[in-house]
């Protein structure tokens, strides 16, 4: 594993300019047209990122420069077609790829990556130890000492745990050894935090890319057209929630603007890299299947969550959609029940009923009226609090 080039594994650690000087002039030649050397490679990466949230491991060449160029191309293409959700999907895929190599990396490499991605870390000379359950023999628990060999600054730790690891109780601060502003963790937790740091670092890197110029865009137009054609074929626009429909255009179908605040909150948490609770996930899935989403569409919504497992998620969504088990389609909780678990973000109740589906139906009606009589109805009243 150590023989694999560092930047093949972690292409986001290099700048595009480190690989190709004057990239905006050279990139169109490398990626822009079907005969360009990296055109097909980018499309094959795109498919895996969209369909499996993973990055192909092209071990045939271990060409780090190509990996860096492909990595940045996704950022530029997503910006060009205004698809922030594609950036998030790509960040999850690349950070997962990075995480898959951490197990076998030396401490030196891990600490270098930690520092480059903004984690403040120390390596204690005498790490604290904790007694953990190692398993059981004939029903009797076996314990072993475990060294907490990595010290992560409290600010880095809380920042990294605040998103997708929030629901994992093993990262609660109250379960950690904290001393003088440093949180001590074992290697397994450290590498998971590092994967999270890579995720945020990649998103920041993508966000920092300059908006592609018109000249550059025309140079890669064939690639953009191919990317859009592919995304259209997998109905990405609907799945990603970012295709903005005109108000009233889709009254009988899915209108994201009409979703009640509780559902919007869960979606926005997923979009920003958060990790909703099991109950929130259930409610989002139940809401979506009840307004006409297919199992595939619902899975696509959840695909960027940190612990997404295609097989388990598919089973659960099929169950909620009534395709398994009791064959009964589940509905989301009532507003009162959502309030009782802290999933309702507003003080009182939305207009339209005491259930997210009734509220959505009511909001859709407002959209329809607004489309029919644009002069007389004010859609901004949608979701107003009673
Ligand atoms: S009142 Fe009901 S529909 Fe509105 S945000 Fe709260 S739980 Fe959702």
From TrEMBL:
Organism domain of life: Archaea
MF annotations from Gene Ontology: 4 iron, 4 sulfur cluster binding; DNA-directed RNA polymerase activity; metal ion binding
Co-factor note (free text): Binds 1 [4Fe-4S] cluster.
Positions contributing to [4Fe-4S] cluster binding: 262, 335, 344, 350
Keywords associated with the record: 4Fe-4S, DNA replication, Iron, Iron-sulfur, Metal-binding, Primosome
Required cofactor(s): [4Fe-4S] cluster
Domain DNA primase large subunit C-terminal: 254-348
Single GO biological process annotation from the record: DNA replication initiation
PANTHER family: DNA PRIMASE LARGE SUBUNIT
Family: Belongs to the eukaryotic-type primase large subunit family.
Subunit structure and binding partners: Heterodimer of a small subunit (PriS) and a large subunit (PriL).
The protein's name: DNA primase large subunit PriL
Organism: Thermosphaera aggregans (strain DSM 11486 / M11TL)
């Amino acid at each position: 594993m150590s023989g694999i080039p560092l930047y093949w594994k972690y292409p986001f650690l290099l700048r595009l300019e480190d690989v190709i000087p004057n990239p905006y002039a050279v990139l169109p030649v490398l990626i822009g047209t079907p005969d360009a050397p990296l055109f097909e490679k980018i499309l094959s990466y795109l498919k895996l990122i969209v369909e499996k949230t993973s990055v192909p491991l092209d071990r045939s060449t271990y060409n780090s420069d190509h990996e860096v160029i492909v990595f940045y191309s996704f950022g530029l293409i997503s910006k060009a077609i205004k698809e922030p959700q594609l950036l998030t999907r790509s960040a999850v895929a690349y950070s997962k790829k990075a995480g898959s190599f951490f197990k076998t990396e030396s401490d030196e490499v891990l600490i270098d990556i930690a520092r480059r991605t903004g984690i403040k870390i120390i390596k204690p000379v005498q790490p604290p130890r904790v007694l953990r359950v190692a398993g059981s023999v004939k029903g009797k628990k076996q314990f072993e000492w475990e060294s907490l060999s990595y010290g992560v600054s409290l600010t880095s730790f809380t920042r990294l745990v605040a998103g997708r690891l929030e629901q994992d109780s093993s990262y609660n601060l109250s379960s950690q050894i904290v001393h003088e502003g440093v949180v001590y963790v074992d290697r397994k937790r450290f590498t998971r935090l590092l994967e999270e740091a890579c995720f945020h670092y990649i998103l920041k890197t993508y966000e920092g890319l300059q908006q592609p110029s018109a000249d550059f865009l025309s140079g890669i137009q064939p690639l953009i057209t191919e990317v859009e054609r592919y995304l259209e074929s997998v109905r990405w626009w609907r799945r990603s929630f970012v295709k903005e429909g005109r108000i009233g255009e889709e009254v009988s179908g899915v209108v994201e603007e009409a979703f009640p605040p509780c559902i919007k909150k869960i979606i926005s948490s997923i979009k920003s890299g958060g990790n909703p609770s099991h109950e929130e996930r259930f409610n989002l899935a139940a809401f979506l299947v009840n307004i006409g989403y297919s199992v595939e569409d619902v899975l696509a919504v959840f695909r960027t969550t940190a612990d997404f497992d295609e097989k388990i998620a598919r089973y659960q969504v099929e169950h909620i959609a009534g395709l398994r088990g009791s064959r009964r389609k589940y509905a989301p909780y009532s507003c009162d029940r959502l309030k009782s678990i802290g999933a309702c973000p507003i003080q009182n109740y939305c207009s339209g009923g005491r259930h997210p589906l009734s509220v959505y139906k009511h909001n859709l009606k407002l959209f329809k009226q607004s489309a029919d009589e644009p002069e007389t109805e004010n859609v901004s009243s949608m979701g107003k609090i009673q």
